[in-house]
Specification:
The complex is a heterodimer of chains A (383) and B (313). Helices cover 66% and strands 1% of the residues of chain A. Chain A is mainly alpha-helical. Chain A has a single domain, classed as ABC transporter involved in vitamin B12 uptake, BtuC. Classes of the chains: A mainly alpha (383), B mainly alpha (313).
Amino acid sequence: MSDWRRAGNLAPARTAWSRPAALKWPESRLGAPARTERGRIATALGAVRVRHVVVLAALIAYPFVVPPFFTFQIGGQTLALGLIALSLSFLAGYGGMVSLAQMTVAGIAGYVYAIFGTTATTDGLTLGWPWWAASLMAIPIATLAATLIGWLSVRTEGIYTIMITLAAGMAFYYLVHQNISIFGGFTGFQAVAAPEAFGIYWRDPLPFYFLSLACALGGYVLIKYTARAPFGVALQGIRDNPRRMAALGFNVTMHRIAAYTLAGFLAAIGGLLLVWYNALVAPGSVDTKALIIVLIIAVLGGFAHPIGPFIGAAIFVLLQNFAIDVVDRLSGGLGLRDRFNLVIGGVFLLIVLFSPDGLLGWWTRLRRRFETAQERSDPRAGR
Amino acid sequence: MRGWTLWWWIAAVVAMVAVSAWAIANNPFKFVSSLLNGITAAALYFLLASGFTLVFGLMRNVNLAHGSLYLLGGYLGWIVADRTDVWLLGVAAGFLSTGILGLLLQVTVFRWMQGEDMRQTMVTIGLSIVLADIMLWVFGGLAYQLDPPRLISTSVPVPVINNYSTYKLVLLAVAVAVGVLLWFFLARTRVGMMIRAGVDDRAMLQASGTNVQIVFALTFAIGAGLAGLAGVLNGGEEAFKPGEDTNVLLFALLVVIVGGMGSIVGAAIGSVLIGVVQAFGLVYAPTYSIVFTFVAMAAVLAFRPQGILGAKA
């Protein structure tokens, strides 16, 4: 049909009707090509800045200075949710595809783990495999499911993606809700056993925190690396102009599906962490609210950088635990105690209305204000 | 390529006829009642999806708060019908209140972010969360039901199955009437012509001197009003309660994805397909009915990514 239909979507081609896209895509900063192994390591080490070391040291020191509640409920949950949101952030930021089914992928990993692993449900629903075998089933199956969802949704473009992935996620919710023989119906699986290995019970606050931190760090580095790898660069090219990339000989569909697979892998790991954290997986873990929470987290932080989803997750978890008390105290007897969704929905609305590129956008704007005039004249800064 | 598509269609139709023949021979009562249920469910889906698809077609705005408007229309219609004891007033209130809300939303929020699809969609997601929580706050977790007049809340004799709910048939009639009215409005009136022109080329419509903002606001009002109308009408058949908003949103999404975004006729075809598939699934394989509807969607997308009647994206 008419050309604006395509242009009106996420492609940056400007017509009279499509203003600059609201969502700021990350810029691909290509370092100098590293040819030798030593050169590659040097480049990787050269990318480490003082701020990385400081943040990492703070994250490692964190559980030793706060009470276990903050280690487990705040820290662990933030990192697990952040990892799932990172998968969405990668798809949206580098691939231009906003998928609402990332929590579904995480939920599939959780369900598969529960089905093969050990839970309180004893009537033949769970197979009682050891944790590592169940995990080895869960991650590939969830990644495969993510690939299938991707295959289905990349056939269409832009705004359609959000609807098809939402429909897929909701369909999975109704499936697990209605099916009792495999998915345990409404109650799902209770008391899902977390792994116990090397004499450590990994659901204890400290081990769980460091396990989540390791996974989150792995995911972060993986995304950072992918963004500069040929695949990631091609993906960003496809995000910006799929037609031109197709003309250059890139297989647009395969790149997009592969992005879903990679994101699905991260979401699957996040889903495993989440099922260990909650010790249960039920339809409530994959309902519309859960799907949208991932989007809220990713948008709160901003798509522009892989650290965004973790910042968003920290804000979300803090709001979830403390905002209601504050709001309740401030509003007196208005009965706002149960209105968490109102608070989080309101915060989300404020962010999308006034700062579409999330909190990272504020950060960039602040930084840009303090930049020197010379840097401001850099053509890239004006993007 | 075209030949293959044709053969696929023929194979699908043959398979469908064979399965139907088996089902009729097996249990005609079950078959006819499922078919009627499917078509009357399709009526509701059409009311929902036509507004959704109209708004998308013109403004590229995927209104994920459509389900919330549906629920809100139901609640407000219930209040009015409860206070005045006039059912029709309740229906009118459901339509008008959400229509006005839609108008306000378009004028105060969406017109300022025209062309930013993704941002608009996220705003509608935020709105749906906030609206759902406010409605839960005000109306509580109870289920509400709207009593239609006695005249249409009985049942009428229907061949094969003895009795069928009059109300559901009225719902079907209303949906058909709305469909015809929409067609007349879009095909025969000046404003309808502007909307169709806008669907094809917004920039050109604006360039030729039309105040597109008025057309947009009107379209959004009609789309939102239809959602409220669907809510208040369905409230006479099934109770509405919290959570219903996401439930109906799923069906609106499925219908427009299958039918093709932006096409009213596509919405009609899609709603019949989804409604019938779901009704048969509910009777013949209750646990997996939602999976059937999803498979129907996947099957359509596999062959026509833009939906049955959707324009090529």
